[in-house]
Amino acid sequence: MQSFDLPRRLAAEALGTGLLVATVVGSGIMAESLTKDVALALLGNTLPTGAILVVLITILGPISGAHFNPAVTLVFALKRELRARDALFYIAAQVAGGIAGTMIAHAMFALPLWEASVKIRTGDAQWLAEGVATFGLVVTILAGVRFERASVPWLVGLYITAAYWFTSSTSFANPAVAIARSMTNTFSGIRPADLPGFVAAEFCGALAALMLMSWLLRTEGEVVARRNLKRPPNSFVGHDYAA
């Protein structure tokens, strides 16, 4: 696998998150302008989001890993597959890219570049939904990387497409995207005051998924090796060597 230096990886993370947010916000604006049917507008927001994820993960994944998501970056940092310092830079790039994506979407539709959302998204049910959405996303990524790495772009795109519809929050599942969406008073917006609950739920969901998958994806051989490492030197298990 080719290796890219940190500046190029950060550029890929910012670019990917920016294009993802531009798609989410832009398709929401377009859908809302074309129909007053909320269900149809949500469908018009869902399909482009799932599609762009397939594209972005395919073309940028080889450069940066295509996280585009601070919760995903945290998971890979905790797995020690990404240095802590690099993870902080990744998260900064993702947030900056997401904000730029909102501004670009607004510019394309001749709206003010920044406009705080007034759309209320709060409460126990929506926080739970965000936790579930992010949990499922991280499960999909970790299992996909383990068993079917080449299919990860499609797995993630299809998961988010589904999660738009089975979660009451419409599956933000991404703190950087949530922050960026607080800056648009359009179909996909979220009040800045509602951000803390969403972001906390997203990180909790990601951590819960990491804990489950760290156990679930451990093979029998890995379990035995782990037990052997914990065994004290010269210990004998399962045998009686007494005279």
Please tell me about this protein's structure.
There is one protein chain. The protein has 243 residues and is mainly alpha-helical. 70% of the residues lie in helices and 0% in strands. The protein has helices at 6-34, 38-64, 70-78, 84-108, 124-147, 152-166, 175-181, 195-216, 220-230. Helix 3 packs antiparallel against helix 4, helix 4 packs parallel to helix 7 (175-181) and helix 5 packs antiparallel against helix 6 (152-166). Mean pLDDT is 93; it is low at 235-243.
The run of helices and strands is HHHHHHHHH
End-to-end C-alpha gap: 57 Å
Helix content: 55-70%
Number of E-state strands: 0
The class by helix and strand makeup works out as: mainly alpha
Query: What number is the mean pLDDT?
Result: 93
Shape: globular
Our Rg estimate from Cα atoms comes to: 21 Å
Question: Regions with pLDDT < 50 over 5+ consecutive residues?
Answer: 235-243
Secondary structure tally, helices: 9
Q: Major sheet, described briefly? A: none
**Per DSSP, what share of the residues sits in E-state strands of 2 or more residues?**
under 5%
